[in-house]
Amino acid sequence: MDNAAATTTPRYPASAADLFALTKPRVMTLVVFTALCGLLVAPQGIHPILGFTAILCIAVGAGASGVLNMWYEADIDAKMKRTAKRPLPTGRVERQSALHFGVGLSAFSVILLGLATNWLAAAILAFAIFFYAVIYTMWLKPRTAQNIVIGGAAGAFPPLLGWAAVTGDVTVLPILLFGIIFLWTPPHFWALSLFVRTDYAAAGIPMLPVVAGNKETRRQIFLYTLPLVASAVAPWPLGLTGPIYGIASIALNLIFLVLAARVARNTADEPAGMGPEKALFKYSILYLFALFAVLVADRMIIA
Questions:
Q1: Domain count, the chain
Q2: Which regions span the lipid bilayer (predicted)?
Q3: What are the residues whose beta carbons fall under 8 Å from the beta carbon of 209, sequence distance 6 or more?
Q4: Per-residue pLDDT tens over the stretch 79-109
Q5: Same domain for 187 and 132?
Q6: Would the CA dihedral through 260, 266, 270, 276 be positive or negative?
Q7: Residues near 182 by Cβ (< 8 Å), separated by ≥ 6?
Q8: How many helices and strands (H and E) does the chain possess?
Q9: Structure pTM?
């Protein structure tokens, strides 16, 4: 890559605020929440200090993934309005420092998680970091319009990690939780990408709206919503959750399905500011938080 255009002369030393910004803290919020939910619904308890350490390690590992993503994409971020003011494109952090920071956070989070809980959880965390930083960022994202479909697995690991940190194994329920986030990612992200299509086009990233157009993207959003709804409701009929989760899940997924159908029926050339795409994107965030919160409430009430 030509990195000269990506940054200006860096400022030394980088501020703590800029280093923290590299970890993508807004994304980390969802990671921490879903990991905590996976930990809380596990069938056995964990000492509070070890539980806190596990969640901290998962958060740091997610932050490390974000740092490595920004390190690799500094030149791309410089070409997009949405990301041009990040610490690397503006030169507030030097690229080599970002690389060292990301690798250091990765090693710290994986080793500490293994020592504090178990090495299965540590191995899953290491693979999750590798998947996001290498398979998604370096390989999939610049090459295929299906990047976010396969790459969605990177953000689906946290509940699996929370569960594994407690139990040392992986069973059907955490796999379903992984599947829910995996299938949620394409409609969530494509709804946003419709609004920043020109940014991706300018940066040469083959996101679905750039490659296939808005109409096909809207259709794909609806198609991916169907298996999402099925996987989100599945824990109840499979006997893995109680009726509290089951009823709430049906209601949350019906709303998601209606909003996705509205997106699919939209024939406007470009998404409107308060149109169905924006409504689906905003609801999709609330949906995931609510679904996992109800799961925890269901498990605690039943217990």
A1: 2
A2: 27-46, 52-72, 93-113, 119-139, 160-184, 221-238, 244-264, 285-302
A3: 190, 193, 194, 197, 200, 217
A4: 888 889 999 999 999 999 999 999 999 999 9
A5: no
A6: negative
A7: 152, 153, 156
A8: 14, 0
A9: 0.91
